[in-house]
Design brief:
Layout: E1 7-10, E2 13-16, E3 28-29, E4 36-40, E5 43-47, E6 50-54, E7 57-60, H1 75-85, E8 91-93, E9 99-102, H2 104-115, H3 129-160, H4 165-168, E10 171-177, E11 182-186, H5 188-191, E12 192-193, H6 198-208, E13 214-224, E14 233-237, E15 243-245, E16 248-258, H7 264-267, E17 274-279, E18 281-283, E19 287-289, E20 294-303, E21 309-312
The chain binds zinc ion.
Zinc ion binds next to loops.
């Protein structure tokens, strides 16, 4: 039900979540707009046989009594600001509380950037094409930076909301499929996956081969350092419990290659952190192990831009 908060007013005195207790319920309000809040105490949440601790937070007491439209914790207000600052209306404010995200703009500018990549020959000053090519590259790079920073703001907003439907009810996703030559609506459930949906993610990517990028949330399980034969960092996310099917155990595995070397410093020492990744993914054929008792369902992606990755800790939510 909306945003998780770490600060509130208790009897008009500002308090942090660490100072809060159940006895304060009934006397808590938003420190900005004064709407009534309640206290959700920390709890253990079981997802796929693993237990995670959910930190305590404050949230709205009633869904129909939202933060005021000018409060920074109002989801719609937050989206309105992101839309206003987004270039080329990549996030378009359709008014009446609905927003449209044009996913294809990101894929188009990624493709254009790849096409205009500056090669060594282009740096030759006698080459008359080099200047205009460099200009073109810069233009595409700037577009991509601004589109991805809008995407990152949406991912940040999702990470502080309690539930998927807090955002899926407000944002629709649009993608222009170049092969079918038509616009498609992508549902939030086909776009955004948490650990309990990795199996669905594998099926969607494997069978539908979507052209649009998708967003995966998870926890970094391990990081493999670059080697001479494979000179890239790669991350694996924690996998869910195996899915039992026809006597075999199937385990979805999400693996991401860090293709952009400039991101290496962001990645080091991040094992155990929660992340959100936004990129195009592909799936391999199921890989069997131990005489077909286990099957790995591999989903792979690669990162080329720093704004495709968001690393956060549960405690960062304000
Ligand atoms: Zn408020």
């Amino acid at each position: 039900m909306g945003r998780k908060l770490r600060t509130a007013l208790f009897n008009n005195k500002e308090i942090k979540i660490e100072e809060a207790s159940e006895g304060m319920r009934g006397n808590l309000t938003c420190h900005i707009c004064n709407v009534e809040l309640t206290y959700v105490k920390g709890y253990m949440k079981e997802i796929n046989e693993k237990t995670y601790y959910i930190y305590p937070y404050f949230r709205l007491i009633r869904k129909d009594n939202d933060h005021s439209s000018v409060c920074k914790y109002n989801t719609e207000g937050c989206l309105t600001i992101i839309a206003k600052n987004s270039s080329d209306k990549i996030l378009e404010d359709l008014k009446s509380g609905k927003f449209n995200f044009r996913l294809h703009l990101i894929s188009d500018s990624l493709r254009k950037l790849g096409k205009t990549e500056i090669k060594k020959d282009d740096l030759n000053e006698e080459n008359p094409n080099s200047k205009s090519k460099e200009k073109e590259y810069k233009k595409n790079e700037e577009k991509l930076d601004s589109y991805l920073s809008t995407m990152k703001k949406i991912m940040e907003l999702r990470s502080v909301l309690e539930e998927n439907k807090d955002i899926s009810s407000k944002v629709t996703l649009e993608f222009y499929n170049r092969f079918l030559k038509k616009k498609q609506k992508i549902t939030w459930n086909n776009f955004y996956y948490e650990i309990d949906k990795y199996g669905d993610c594998y099926s969607y990517v494997k069978h539908k081969r979507p052209q649009h990028p998708i967003c995966i949330a998870g926890k970094i399980k391990s990081i493999t350092e670059p080697k001479p034969e494979y000179d890239f960092y790669s991350l694996k996310l924690e996998s869910p419990k195996p899915i039992q099917e026809k006597g075999a155990h199937k385990i979805p595995v999400i693996e991401i290659k860090v293709q952009n070397k400039k991101m290496d410093n962001m990645i080091r020492n991040q094992v155990g952190k929660n992340i959100l990744i936004y990129c195009k993914f592909w799936a391999l054929e199921p890989q069997s192990w131990k005489e077909d008792k286990y099957y790995f369902l591999n989903v792979k992606g690669s990162l080329v831009h720093k704004n495709q990755l968001l690393i956060f800790e549960e405690k960062d939510i304000d």
